[in-house]
Structure formats: structure tokens, C-alpha cells
Design brief:
- This protein has 667 residues and is mainly beta.
- It contains twelve helices and 39 strands.
- Among the domains are: 278 residues, Beta-galactosidase, Chain A, domain 5 (Distorted Sandwich), CATH 2.70.98; 172 residues, Aldolase class I (TIM Barrel, Alpha-Beta Barrel), CATH 3.20.20.70.
- Strands 1, 2, 3, 4, 5, 6, 12, 15, 18, 19 and 20 form an eleven-stranded mixed sheet that branches.
- α4 runs parallel beside α5.
- The chain is globular, with a radius of gyration of 25 Å.
- GO terms for molecular function: carbohydrate binding.
- Keywords: Calcium.
- Pfam families: GH97_C, GH97_N, Glyco_hydro_97.
């Protein structure tokens, strides 16, 4: 049966300036504008009624979003003074491009577009455009602000985009205490009716309509604008923008013309379609980097997580060449692309008179601590074929950004983790864009930590490899109960809908739940080792971390899979999924396919069709939960066999377990 998505947007009176001469005559009052998706499954309608804008959404004739208001309030008042619609314009569009880093290499996204001008017929005679794009797996719209008569700038106090959801869907979203946050926490899973009023939720958020429809709400192309949140007010969700610091509630200040990010609604009757969608990158501008030869996604060490473990025989461990050499040699032996130079003993690798991770007044990211020769480390890494990365606090880096990036390039550093940003107001958004642009000029890739969700900028700036903004395995160093498999299974259906998710993968010391204790050095893990291997496929990130220390890996079952699994993909397909319960997906890289399957605290049995494989015979290298993982969660059942696309495989997942398979074409 063909499923139909219908979206109706009622634009209710928004007064604008007299229409520019390129706009066709205005619509008759209350006349509805309609737009269909390329395959006819999505319909959008727009109508002006009583100086208010509304939109509605249906999936297969089922209401998803009921009539919901779109409101904008500027410093000179709400945009609603005797509104009149200009004549809409329509066009067909197609985004066809190659992703340098992504879950799919070649993207082909068709859409239908509507541009609707709106004018105020009363003072202050402003004008606005709403642009809508409808794809086969969702839709997006944004506000566009043309140059106004007698004003060439704008001050936005509020953007109230409403989402009045039909019925009582199950909500999966991250509640936050404020707009200044690391975006890390335990996700709320509850029916809409149980969500408290005036709560503040991060995006993406997932809404499950009785397992028959799935809606993911987020934003794309966040540039020179404030980050968006959702708040439940009077029974419906309303967008909230992060305020500029010290600006009295102002959200956005900009010169005209200007435009908002896209307000994205991923929508399908199949949950996996939301994870497969490329709408978010398709709503971003094309790649702006001319030379791409230096951009090399891969895996990296991150010794901070394991506690900077080195052999007892190592002479003078610390932030020095010898410690870096130990990890670089490990990377070279095992094909791991990068080693990260981080802190040691809670002191940064660079001179800093701050306390713990807060930079002091004399922090200098261009001066290594005594005994640390960064040039020598970079030269040794180059000799061994291993790239060098560094960790920096954004507030220490930003005042020195130009001199630091130039020096890092001179040394031979290839990338960095920029941490503790903890904001997404317009100022911070612009700072991060500046960092990406300037880093690219010096051939540096970026991994943002303590940062907001991705919005598809890895298409425009493919040197953005990954973002954190997720509670992850670092909490096993200090939280009494650690990160449990239930936390893992929520992330793909929430935060990962927006894009790459840094998660501190690779802990190889799993214990039963009743044996878990916090350890800042050599942290323990929950869930099985097969679960951990599968996470390298499940979690999208173009710079996966190999968090543990060399002797935790070498000679251990499953390490071969960790060494072989790529971090960027040609294709992604979801085979089965139930939010908060289980997920099985496959990803393709070159001639190989990789399968990852994880579950929560319940065991599962699946039969998986291998019809996704290309023609020919493959060797399936299987890493599954052993029969005794209840007591020994690091135990694996390793097997191999020949398969084709005509075959099926039985998959068993223990409680908190996983299943990882590498498919290598042999003929």
C-alpha cells in the first residue's frame, strides 16, 4: 500500500511591505497554496487567515501535526500587521552531490519547492518569504528576510514555530536545564501528555505515533543564527531560540538579507527511513573546499579516557615524546590513522595556569609544556604514517586562533578536538563556523566537544568530522552506574538523526552490572564486547575514537574488527529498528559491507536477509555474544562462512548484547 504524507501550512496574516516587482499579484484572501513531493506522497498547503500563520501535516491521511502557528517577533513588534500573501512560485529541485564524509557517498535527493512572499500592509510595512522543500522522506521550511524599506538590519526577539502534534505520541528527547549546556544527559521517554509544561528539550527529538508514523524534528544549515530548542507550551511544542549573552533576550541580530536555518521534519511510516535520510546535508550549501586531498577520516587514540596508561617499563611517562611514541607505534602496527595528544595528570599539553579544564589568564595554546616537543612528535608520526591531533579548550584557542592554526600546520598537526563550548547562541554558532573555515585553510580537521548537534555542515565544510553533544562512555569514569545499553539504543533514534555522534567508543573491559564501579583510570564497561564492536557500525562518526590503551586491545578477541571497520560510508541501510529496544543496520564501504546490531537489556533473536549484498560471494566474519556473556561479557563467539545475497542469517543478541559482521567479497 502506498503511504501518503500530506502537509498543510496555513499562513495567517503577516503584513509585509508592498510586493517587489518580481512578485506576481497577491493571492485572494484565504486562498490555499498546495505543493506535492516528487513521488506524490507529500502535500503541503498554505493559507493566510487572520494575520497568523499555521501549518498541518498528515502521513497517509493520518494527522501528524495539526494546525500550528508560525510567529516571528522583532524589536519593532510582531510580524502581523495586515498581512497579504504574494503569488507563490514553484520549482522542482534535485540535490546531486558526493559527500566527502558521510553515511552515504553519492546523494540524489529530489524535492518540490515553494517560495511564498508575505507582506505587511500596515506600518512598519515589512516583508518576509517562507521557503518550503518537500522531499519523499520529509520536509523543511525556513524564513527568509529580504532587505526592508528604510532598514537594512534585523533584530529578532522570538521565533515561535509551533508543532501541535496530533494525538499522544511517545516522545524521545533530551531535557535540558538551560541554553548553556554540554547537551549531554539521559533522554526522556514518555507520552506527550506526560511531558511537563515549559520544559526545554534539545533537538533532534523523535515522536512515535503508535508505531505507524515516526517524526524527527531538528534543524539544518545553522549559520549566523541562534540554535533552536523545543518547549511544551499549552499542550504543543514551540521553538525556543538560544539568546545572545548579555543582550536582554535578543536572539538574532543580522544585516539584511538574512535567513533562518531550515526547520526539518523527517517523516515516515518506517523508522529506519529517518536514519537513512540525507535531507539534512541536502539542505546545506555545497562543499566550499577546493583541495580535499588532505581530508582523511579515520580512527584515533584518545588516552585521556583510559587514564594515559603506558607500560610500567616506559621511561618517564607523561606529556613527552616517549609517551606519544608508545601510542604512535601502536597506531602504526594496527592501521589506526591518528594519535591524539591530550592532557596528562589533569594538565593540558600546552602552558595553562587555569584550574583543571578551565583556561587561566595566561593560557597559551602555542607553547607546549616543558619536555614536550610537538615538532618531534609530528615528525615521528609522519615517519610512521600516523597523523597527530591535539585537544584544546575553545576559550584558550579562540584568542590565538590565527597564530595557533598556522603553527599547528607548520608542526604537522592534522586535526584537533575543540572542547567545552557549551552554547549555541548566534555568537557561538559564528565562532564555530569561523573555526571550521580557518582550520580548513591550514589543513586541520575538527572534532567539536561540549558542542551542539550537527546541522549538516559536514557537506559544506567536510573538515568537520564529528561532534559530541551526547552523554557517552566518558561518564563511566565518574558516574556510579555508568552508561547502560538502554542509553546506547536511544542515541541512534534521537541525537544521531542529526548526524555524526562522538561517543568515546572502544572500552574493552566489560563487567556484569553488579560488578561495575567507577574507575577514572582504566574505566569499566557495561554491555557485552560484541555490543561494543557493533557500536562502531551503529554510531555514525567520521572520526571514531579507540579509547582504550594498546595492551587492552592487542591480542584481544574482536580487535581485528575494530581495526578493519571504516568511519565513512558509501551507503547505509536499516534492516530492523524499534526505538529504545533494538537496531540492526548495515553500511557499505568500497566492496565491503558491515553489520551492527545492538539491543537494550532484553535478549533478541532475529533472522536477517542478506539481500542488501551485491552479486557474488562474500566471506562473513562474525563476532557474536558468547553463551556465557552473562558472567563474562567480554567473551565472543567468532565464526566465518561464505554467504550470498540469497542467504539469511540468524542473529542472537544477549541482554545488553550485540552482533558485528564484516562481509568481504571473495568472488
Amino acid at each position: 500500500m502506498r503511504h501518503i504524507i500530506i502537509i498543510t501550512v496555513f499562513l495567517v496574516g503577516i503584513g509585509l511591505l508592498p510586493a517587489p516587482n518580481w512578485i506576481s499579484p497577491a493571492l485572494a484572501k484565504n486562498e490555499k497554496v498546495e505543493l506535492h513531493s516528487p513521488n506524490g506522497t507529500i502535500k503541503i498547503g498554505i493559507q493566510l487567515v487572520k494575520n497568523q500563520i499555521f501549518y498541518s501535516v498528515w502521513l497517509h491521511d493520518r494527522p501528524i501535526v495539526e494546525a500550528s502557528a508560525l510567529n516571528l517577533e522583532f524589536d519593532e513588534g510582531r510580524f502581523s500587521q495586515g498581512l497579504k500573501l504574494g503569488k507563490p512560485s514553484f520549482r522542482e529541485g534535485k540535490e546531486t552531490y558526493e559527500l566527502v564524509v558521510g553515511k552515504k557517498k553519492s546523494v540524489h535527493d529530489s524535492y518540490q519547492e515553494l517560495l511564498l512572499p508575505i507582506m505587511e500592509t500596515l506600518s512598519p510595512f515589512r516583508n518576509l518569504q517562507i521557503r518550503v522543500r518537500v522531499f519523499d522522506d520529509g520536509l523543511a521550511f525556513r524564513y527568509e528576510f529580504p532587505v526592508q524599506a528604510q532598514r537594512n538590519d534585523m533584530v529578532l526577539l522570538d521565533e515561535k514555530t509551533h508543532f501541535k502534534l496530533a494525538g499522544n505520541p511517545r516522545v524521545m528527547a533530551l531535557g535540558l536545564p538551560s541554553y548553556t549546556s554540554s547537551h549531554e544527559g539521559v533522554y526522556t521517554v514518555a507520552p506527550l501528555s506526560a511531558i511537563p509544561a515549559d520544559s526545554l528539550f534539545d533537538m533532534p527529538a523523535l515522536f512515535d505515533f503508535d508505531g505507524e508514523a515516526f517524526l524527527g524534528i531538528t534543524e539544518a544549515a545553522l549559520l549566523d543564527y541562534a540554535g533552536m530548542y523545543l518547549s511544551k507550551q499549552a499542550g504543543e511544542f514551540v521553538s525556543m531560540l538560544s539568546p545572545l549573552p548579555g543582550q536582554g533576550g535578543v536572539k538574532v541580530k543580522a544585516m539584511l538579507p538574512h535567513k533562518s536555518p531550515w526547520r526539518v521534519m523527517l517523516l515516515s511510516d518506517r523508522l529506519g527511513a529517518l536514519l537513512e535520510s540525507t535531507i539534512i546535508t541536502s539542505l546545506n550549501e555545497p562543499n566550499r573546499l577546493e583541495d580535499l586531498s588532505w581530508i582523511k577520516p579515520g580512527k584515533t587514540t584518545f588516552p585521556w579516557w583510559n587514564g594515559n596508561i603506558v607500560p610500567l617499563t616506559l621511561n618517564a611517562p607523561g606529556n613527552n615524546f616517549e609517551t606519544a611514541q608508545y601510542y604512535i607505534d601502536f597506531c602504526a602496527r594496527n592501521g589506526i590513522e591518528y594519535h591524539s595528544v591530550v592532557e596528562y595528570g589533569v594538565r593540558q599539553w600546552y602552558v595553562d595556569d587555569g584550574v583543571r579544564y578551565m583556561p587561566g589568564p595566561n593560557a597559551d595554546v602555542t607553547t607546549p609544556v616543558a619536555g614536550l616537543d610537538m615538532q618531534r612528535i609530528c615528525d615521528y608520526g609522519k615517519q610512521k604514517g600516523v597523523g597527530i591531533r591535539v585537544w584544546v579548550h575553545w576559550a584558550a584557542l579562540y584568542p590565538q586562533i590565527d597564530s595557533a592554526f598556522a603553527l599547528y600546520e607548520k608542526w604537522g598537526i592534522q586535526g584537533m578536538m575543540i572542547d567545552f563550548m557549551d552554547r549555541d547562541d548566534q555568537e557561538m554558532v559564528n565562532i564555530q563556523t569561523e573555526m571550521l573555515e580557518k582550520a580548513a585553510k591550514h589543513h586541520l580537521h575538527i572534532q567539536f566537544h561540549g558542542a551542539y548537534k550537527p546541522t549538516g555542515l559536514s557537506r559544506t565544510y567536510p573538515n568537520e568530522f564529528t561532534r559530541e553533544g551526547t552523554r557517552n562512555y566518558e561518564v563511566n569514569k565518574w558516574e556510579p552506574h555508568g552508561l547502560v545499553p538502554f542509553d546506547d539504543i536511544n542515541i541512534p533514534f534521537t541525537r544521531m538523526l542529526a548526524g555524526p555522534t562522538d561517543y568515546h567508543l572502544g572500552g574493552f573491559r566489560a563487567v556484569p552490572a553488579d560488578s561495575f564501579v567507577t574507575q577514572y583510570i582504566q574505566p569499566l564497561m557495561l554491555g557485552t564486547r560484541a555490543h561494543q564492536l557493533a557500536m562502531y557500525v551503529v554510531m555514525e562518526s567520521y572520526l571514531q575514537i579507540v579509547s582504550d590503551y594498546p595492551k587492552a586491545y592487542e591480542g584481544q578477541p574482536g580487535f581485528n574488527f575494530l581495526k578493519q571497520v571504516p568511519t565513512t560510508w558509501d551507503d547505509t541501510k536499516v534492516l530492523n529498528a524499534l526505538a529504545g529496544e533494538y537496531l540492526t543496520l548495515v553500511r557499505k564501504h568500497g566492496g565491503e559491507w558491515y553489520l551492527g546490531s545492538i539491543t537494550n537489556d532484553q535478549p533478541r533473536e532475529f533472522t536477517i536477509s542478506l539481500s542488501f549484498l551485491d552479486a557474488g560471494t562474500y566471506r562473513a566474519e562474525i563476532y557474536a555474544d558468547a553463551s556465557d556473556v552473562g558472567k563474562h561479557p567480554n567473551h565472543l563467539q567468532v565464526a566465518a562462512g561464505s554467504v550470498t545475497s540469497q542467504d539469511s542469517l540468524s542473529i542472537h543478541l544477549a541482554a545488553g548484547g550485540g552482533h558485528a559482521i564484516r562481509f568481504v567479497k571473495v568472488e
